[in-house]
Structure formats: structure tokens, C-alpha cells
Amino acid sequence: MSAVAKFFTIEPARKMLALVFAFGLWLFVAIDGTYNYEREILVEYVNLPEKYMIVDSVVRLRTTFSGKGKALFGIWTARPSVVCNLAEVVPGKNVISTRDLVLPVKEVTATFGPRYINIEVDERMTKTVRPLIPLRGVLKNGMSIVAIEVLDTLVATGPKSMMQKLTEFTTESLDVRNNSVTFEKKLKMESVAPLIKFSSENIRVRVIVDSTGSRVFNEISVVVVKNPGQRIKSAPLYIDTLVIAGARSRISALGRQEIIARIRTTDLVPGEYYLSPEIVLPEFLTTVSFKPQRFRVFVY
What we know:
By secondary structure, the chain is α+β, with helices and mostly antiparallel strands. Helices cover 16% and strands 48% of the residues.
């Protein structure tokens, strides 16, 4: 029999009592001593004005605690957070001394690794947005889209510097394959940036469908887009015949003022050119053909 086994088999009750007494005596002495204890703690930001948002911040701080063992034992079992008051921050970079941080723990002193922390703040911006809806597939043969209606109001909120740069907010692709009647669908918004939040993760859309038709337009004037000081010479610029296809209800309501035909000469050096016009139409309408297809233009 081993020595350890003999120790516990001979008068076990008295020896267990002695061990418990020894551990209690050690614990009493240990918790009354002064120690240093190091660990990372979370930073909690409070009192940020509603008009601002945090763009960048320090999440954790390496901290050295000094105090009695019994106080440090509480920190070891339940990690506290250090509190940073943001009531007086301004847009941009804010440098905050770690001496101004508040640690809600008694009988313990704390020393933080860095002397200062940087907090970047921006103005909160909110605006109503119309999402861009990419399409996947095509409708059933002989059918066309009249319009896609967004049935829900979508509001985006984020830092002003980011919101001003973003011009498009996109949903997941809308599958229209083999549809032949008007239908509704719920689409998920695609994430644009972690700090930009939408009022809803999904929006409802209605796709209005009609049979496909075509329409002929005559004598559509062509606009020349040129540089200041650039001179252009040509015969009168008109498209004699323009054929447009799309949903019948949309085609019949299409006005001439909604059709743009243009030629760009901004990148051209002086000379003679035969240029094809660009035809710009409302959404879901397409150009079938146009004549003439090129115009003779002199650039000076």
C-alpha cells in the first residue's frame, strides 16, 4: 500500500479535519495579503450624445490590479468593465487619458497599460433610401416588367462620413425566371458596412408584369455632349426611326421627352468622325433598332 493510501486509511476523519483546518488557515492569510493581478478588461462607453456614433474605439485594456487578496479574488471570478464617459466628445479623434476612466471596484487600485486611448466619433446620419434591386433570370417569353415597386420604407443610419460616400444600397438578387404575372417578394438587404444599419433587414417589392410590345418613334433629335470651347459641325442630327420594346402599358405611356439620344465628343481630338448615338431609355425598356446608326461629325 502506498504512503498516500496509508495516510488516508489510518484515522481518516482526524486527518481530513486537519487538512481542512490547514487550507482555511492558508486562505485566511492569503486573502489578507496584498497582491498584483494582471488581466484584460472590457471598456464600456457611456453618455455618448445621441447625435454621434463611435467609429473606432479601444475594446479592451491590459490592466494591473493591486489590492488585498479577497478583493482580487472577486475580480478573478467576475471580470469588471472600466467605464469611459463620452459626454464631452466631439466629431473626429478624441484622446482620453486613462486616468479619467472609472473602475467600479472597491479596495483595488488599477494601472492601465496605455496612458491614453483614442476614440473616433462621427455625426449620426439617417436617410430614407431606395435600394438597387439586381435581377436574375428572365420572365416568361412574351412578358416584360412594367415597374418594380418598393412596398416598405427603408431607412439607413450610420456615420455621416460613410453615408455620404455610399450612393447605392443593394438587395439580394430578385429571381424573375418564368414569371408571367404580377407578383410580390421579400428581399434581404445586402450588408454594406458594419456601422451602417437598416430599419429592416428585409423589404417587400411588387413586380408589375405585362405582355411585351414595341413602338416606333420618328425624328428623335440627337444631343451633342462636348467640351467647353469645342466646335462641332454636322448635318442636322435626327434619328429618323427608333424602335423601342417593353411592357405594352409602359410603351404606350412613353413620352418623347423620356427618350435621350446623345453623341459624346469630349474625348475626341479635332478631326472627322462617324459616330453612333447612345440611346438612354427609362428602366425596363430596350432599344430594338434605330436609323441612321451613324452620323458624320467634324470636331474642331
